[in-house]
Amino acid sequence: MKTNHNNVKLLFATGGTGGHIFPALAVAKQIKQYYPNTEILFVGSNHRIEMQLVPQHGFPIVGLSLRSGLKRNLSLRNFKVLFQTLKSLRESKKIIKKFKPNMVIGFGGYVTGPVLKKARCFNIPTAIQEQNAVPGLTNRLLSRSANYIFTAFDGMENYFDGSKIIVTGNPVRPDIVNNRYSKEIALKKLELDPNLPVLLVLGGTLGAKSINHGIASLLEKIDQHNIQLIWQTGINYIPQAKELLDHLHPSTKIIVKDFFDDMALIYAAADAIIARAGALTIAELQVVGKPTILIPSPNVTHDHQMKNALKLKEKNAIILLKDDEIKEKLWSTIEEVLNNKELQATLSTNLKQMARPDAAEKLAHIIMEIAQIKSYVY
């Protein structure tokens, strides 16, 4: 039986980091644009960042008790996680029975496990969205029962059932895809000098410790070379960063925040970018097309950030710097990128060629097509 668009309800499970949350928000916004009467409910983890971010973008969210995953070594904390998991399974069942979704999609984060597991008990169509070149354990396990697997990269048959895979790319927020800011307007709004280079440093939602320490050690050089700095430290490093800025000359052009709400504005102002190699960051950088230095985090499962970055390195689309090379090579790499116009042009062109700016729109239409079939009973 076909479901009228006016009656479609979608449940999005996601949380933990912006890399999981923002792709889900990008898809949700596209669905509401094309199918405005669709109801979308988010499920996240209580007391995590999604409980604030999602409502800020206009969507309702409910929280589960599960806040972390199991430790691979023996740990007393695993008993707490198991208790939270059992409780979250019961909470997921209540949410599903009350909301009655036509489809459930997991965008990553610990909450996707209990929500998708309970959805399958009701024979609800489920999907996972895998953002990385190498999937994590949760998505590998969920892929066995999920009906559909949306991937950002080709060649994921090594990890998933190929018959379930739909390659869409990673969803990027519409305000970044359709950036309304010119560089001139962005610099004016940020009160930056159009005659001096702008370096953007992205530390992620929580903060990249090694990148932040590397930038902190270079603040005087950055100032001496008249480089303007936009520095997103993440929530864990903002107090130290502000303390460091107190010791610099007042005229130094540095904008530092833990988190920028208007990333389109920040991207538009940048001449070069330093970032981790998370899948969402890469998807945004491909759309933005600015010369980029990627520094993959070594503290992720299966070293997936390095594998993400290598796919861009193979196309000569980024400069790759290892985390343990920051102290020795970060400054020389920054100088190389900012002073070499030919390199800038090459990186920018190759990065843009890898972009999938229509990923969110494509996913929105696929999800709505699947959600038409109502073949389950609550």
Outline the structure in words.
The strands form two sheets. A seven-stranded parallel β-sheet has the order 3-2-1-4-5-6-7, sandwiched between helices. Helix 12 (279-288) links the parallel strand 11 and strand 12 (292-294). It is an alpha/beta fold and 378 residues long. It has 16 helices and 13 strands. The longest helix has 23 residues, at 77-99. The model has no long low-confidence stretch (mean pLDDT 89). The chain has two domains: 5-172 and 358-370, 3-Layer(aba) Sandwich (Rossmann fold), CATH 3.40.50; 175-353, Glycogen Phosphorylase B (Rossmann fold, 3-Layer(aba) Sandwich), CATH 3.40.50.2000.
Layout of helices and strands, plus pairs?
Layout: E1 9-13, H1 18-34, E2 39-45, H2 50-56, E3 61-64, H3 77-99, E4 103-106, H4 112-121, E5 126-130, H5 137-142, E6 148-151, E7 165-167, H6 174-177, H7 183-189, E8 198-202, H8 209-217, H9 219-224, E9 228-232, H10 238-245, E10 254-257, H11 263-269, E11 272-275, H12 279-288, E12 292-294, H13 304-313, E13 319-320, H14 326-339, H15 341-353, H16 359-370
Parallel strand pairs: 1-2, 1-4, 2-3, 4-5, 5-6, 6-7, 8-9, 8-11, 9-10, 11-12, 12-13
Query: Any idea what the CATH architecture of the largest domain is?
Result: 3-Layer(aba) Sandwich
Categorize the overall geometry: globular
Number of strands: 13
User: What multimeric state do the chains show?
Assistant: single chain
- Determine the CATH superfamily of the largest domain: Glycogen Phosphorylase B
| Overall pLDDT metric | 89
Strand content: 5-15%
Strand order of the largest sheet: 3-2-1-4-5-6-7
Structural class: alpha/beta
Rg value:
21 Å
> Which fold name corresponds to the CATH topology of the largest domain?
Rossmann fold
Q: What's the CATH first level of the largest domain? A: Alpha Beta
**Uncertain ranges:** none
What's the number of structural domains? 2
The largest sheet is: 7 strands, parallel
User: How many angstroms separate the termini?
Assistant: 16 Å
Number of helices: 16
H/E topology pattern: EHEHEHEHEHEEHHEHHEHEHEHEHEHHH
